[in-house]
Amino acid sequence: MGLPSTPAAPGTVRLHRDGAIAHVVFDRPEAHNALTWTMYEQLVDICRRLAGDADVRVVTLRGAGGKAFVAGTDIAQFAAFGKGEHGAEDGVAYERRIDAGIDLLERLPMPVVALLEGWVVGGGLAIAATADLRIATPEARFGVPIARTLGNCLSAGNTARLVAGFGAGPAKRMLLLAELLSADEALAAGFLAQVVAADALDATGAAMCTRLAGHAPLTLRAAKETVRRIVAAGVPDNLDLVRLCYGSADFREGIAAFVEKRPARWQGR
């Protein structure tokens, strides 16, 4: 028996089935699908349900509205983080919480295909990086601009996913220069399997899912898990760096500047 569909509602992560293909939709288009804590929890619940359903052969990921895949975490939520040591530990807890959810997504036993439009940034890029195959429209943009916005940092696991997906050079452009890469640049780096016109995205994604659903599921499971283990084997512990960033005055300034829509005044402390 297959999974039931979840109801559509603003600010949710939705799941619906089309035969052997399950579709996960990040649905908060008025905020470019930026994720709330509740949406992260919904994603975790969906991943647990999908992992236990042998009838699902392929999963797709997509953002609602056509303007963005996922524009990261809703930044207003960071205002509740503490200062100094308290902020550092809040940051560690946040990164661990997000890592746990993204790890569940990455460990799904069936292939995951991400259909990407518009902004694919921050946590949204980390989510897209867990997919096995990615198709984007020419307007898609990829990046982690936190060096000029928030002043926080990524977990080692998410940094490793970007390096594996783009290569070290493009990953540093995104992380150090806070550049957004174009769809053509992401394709050239190997992060994308295809770039197609917006009106061809649905058909191209459906064709890829049909092709994957016809392949040997255990072979696909073994292949994707082997690749995941190879990447994960080289992931170090960077919690000291997470504490450095999230416990800093600069992080508090980054949040305030973002909310107030002004440039941040970095102090390096």
Fill in the keyword field for this structure:
single chain; 269 residues; alpha/beta; four-stranded mixed β-sheet; 10 strands; 16% strand
Structure, described:
This protein is an alpha/beta fold and 269 residues long. 45% of the residues lie in helices and 16% in strands. The chain is built from ten helices and ten strands. It has helices at 37-51, 84-106, 123-130, 156-166, 168-176, 183-189, 201-213, 217-232, 239-246, 249-260; strands at 12-18, 21-27, 58-63, 68-71, 112-116, 119-121, 133-136, 141-143, 181-182, 194-195. The strands form two sheets. A six-stranded mixed sheet has the order 1-2-3-5-7-10, sandwiched between helices. It has a four-stranded mixed sheet with strand order 4-6-8-9. Strand 1 and strand 2 form a beta hairpin. Helix 2 (84-106) packs across helix 9 (239-246), helix 3 (123-130) packs across helix 4 (156-166) and helix 4 (156-166) crosses helix 5 (168-176). The longest helix has 23 residues, at 84-106. The termini are far apart.
Structural class: alpha/beta
Give the percentage of residues in beta strands.
15-25%
Q: pLDDT under 50 segments (min length 5)? A: none
> What would the principal axes of the Cα set say about the shape?
globular
Helix and strand sequence: EEHEEHEEHEEHHEHEHHHH
Helix content: 40-55%
